[in-house]
Specification:
Blueprint lengths: L60 E7 L1 H6 L20 E4 L4 E5 L9 E2 L12 E5 L5 E5 L6 E3 L12 E3 L5 E3 L3 E7 L4
Parallel strand pairs: 3-4
Antiparallel strand pairs: 1-2, 1-10, 3-5, 5-6, 6-8, 7-9, 9-10
């Protein structure tokens, strides 16, 4: 079952209800475990439960999102992802998003999806659930395209990442998505 909205172009997911047009399946709701009787101590393990992501301590990294006119021009013409997507004028200042989890969803927040790294609504070339950014326990970063419509690119590479495959990358390399969005990771300098 879905909302009945018409599919726009060859988008994989419905922007309203999240239906996957390729599989015909709706997104699965997150699994929510029952809360312990006391918010301070879990009676089963005698431990303090982890804070929700919104309250979790920062992990020492920020994602910096900015618009890249060169990336937009690269994606314009011959049916490119930027066709019909205007470049922002005036160009907005870069946005810094403090990462509070080791696994972060990159995308556009909409009615049925909440992105940890929200790229905003101006770049419609970014999928709602575009990519997953993960920091491993050994300090290595991986990126996985989640089957986005327009792909995910790292560094100056012109080849899309393989969908659903974790790809290790150097966090100093830019992540390019959508029509004009570029994301860079920066470590937070200690105060």
């Amino acid at each position: 079952q879905n909302c009945g909205a018409a599919r726009v172009g060859d988008e994989r997911f419905c922007e309203i209800c999240g239906l996957d047009f390729h599989t015909g399946r709706m997104p699965q709701p997150p699994v929510v475990s029952a809360q312990p009787a006391s918010p301070l101590v879990d009676p089963k393990t005698s431990t303090i439960p982890a804070a929700p992501a919104a309250l979790a301590a920062p992990i020492g990294w920020v994602a910096v999102l900015h618009c890249d006119r060169d990336w937009w021009q690269h994606n314009t013409g011959a049916g490119g992802v930027a066709d019909g997507v205007p470049y922002p004028d005036p160009e907005p200042a870069p946005r810094r998003i403090e990462l509070r989890a080791r696994v972060n969803l990159i995308g556009r927040t909409s009615g049925s999806a909440v992105a940890d790294i929200d790229c905003g609504s101006a770049d419609t070339g970014v999928s709602r659930r575009h990519a997953r950014l993960s920091l491993g326990t050994a300090g290595t970063w991986t990126l996985s395209d989640l089957g986005s419509t327009n792909g995910t690119f790292v560094g100056e590479a012109s080849t899309k990442l393989v969908a659903q495959a974790d790809t290790a990358f150097d966090p100093s390399e830019p992540i390019r998505i959508g029509a004009f969005t570029v994301l860079r990771l920066e470590p937070v300098e200690p105060a």
